[in-house]
Amino acid sequence: MSDAILMASGADDIDFMIHGLFSYELFGHKVWITTTHVCVLIVMLVLIGFAFVINRKMKHATDVPDTLQNIAELIVEKLDGMVENVMGENSRKFKNYISTIFLFILFSNISGLFGLRPPTADYGTTLAMALITFTMITFCKFKYQKVKGVLQGLCDPWPFWAPINIIGDLAVPVSLSLRLFANVLSGTVIMALIYGLLAKIAIAWPAALHVYFDLFSGAIQTYVFCMLTMTYVNQAMDTE
Questions:
Q1: Deepest of 53, 116, 142, 237, by most Cβ within 10 A of its Cβ?
Q2: Domain residue spans in the chain?
């Protein structure tokens, strides 16, 4: 199983494909557990473990914070500041959601540094997050703009423009998911090709590429996904 999950364990078994690890029967259908499921589980366990440790730590917070408390406060402060700068007075309602998807996407993107196949290199992962965001955007539209406001928005600037506006709305989850998926997958493919084709000379120097594809590009794509999410939600809550 470890050989299928790890990306960089040797030239002979390096690839960028999703592999089925084992299957089981569910209501007469065969369901596969893939490398993506396992990597998502690993990322979730890391985040849950980190949250549990920080929660216990903050219950005994001191006036003079130690290293762990400083890290926790810095993360919360930066994420809250990012959401407040973009969403303004609406930020209070969405801080938890934006912070959660930010950490999940970021940890997923940088998991390649530890030999895992990034879960965000699977379109099933990015599409699921985009659909959740799209559902939230649609809910906010009907909650704050009401049905009348939504219909007016679809018919803006002219009623015959409605089909194009509908296509534009439906394109939101597609663009959100494809942008993140394509950027992460491209880095995954390039690194897999390097380790597969240049295995004999892939010593030390691929680390610089990991810094770019996993850290720099991964952080940028995380920020872009969250920024677009906040922008779309703000637009959905705009009643003017």
A1: 116
A2: 2-237
